Amino acid sequence: MDKISIVVPCYNEEESVPYFYEEITKISKEMKEIEFEYLFINDGSKDKTLEIVKEYARQDSRVRFVSFSRNFGKEAAMYAGLQASEGDYVAIMDVDLQDPPDLLPEMYNTLLEKKYDCVATKRQTRKGENPIISFCSRLFYKLINKMTKTEIVDGARDYRLMTRQMVNSILEVTEYNRFSK
Length: 181
Ligand code: UDP
Ligand code: MG
Description:
binds uridine-5'-diphosphate, single chain, alpha/beta, binds magnesium ion, 6-stranded mixed sheet, 22% strand, 6 helices
């Protein structure tokens, strides 16, 4: 049975964690042929995130967690999650449901069928976003793509599903100032 680890960085997310848990559990029920591991990374939250995650871990053997002593940022949380993950496949998801868990079955099927190492996601529209944030994001992608030779896709998200081989390769890159996208 294949195992998928879901790496979930969390910073002050006491309100989101229960909704996320509910949604990912629905998806795990749909994907009966897969064993799941939910790996919450508490990135130095100052609210009740850690207590809530600990409670889930007590009740549900699929839930594991890593907890940082202070806030290190999402990139560090993702890296710690990849290090701690045990699955044959690993997905990274935001806990606030901006990365829809219900895309996971399609991502998994595509990965298998096409024999890809990674299926990634990007946002198609910035509808509903604060116009100032939207403007700054667009400007960021324009500038960064002018300044560097590596293409960085506008709207790319960290939500991706990877094979163990890819995760291990990423873990070999130990640089400190990471930018995964
Ligand atoms: N996050 C984190 N550490 C941080 C900031 C954010 O682990 O220092 C997590 C956060 O809890 C969420 C994800 O990273 O699961 C994305 O954060 P957020 O929703 O704030 O980012 P945005 O939606 O603005 O890209
Ligand atoms: Mg968000």
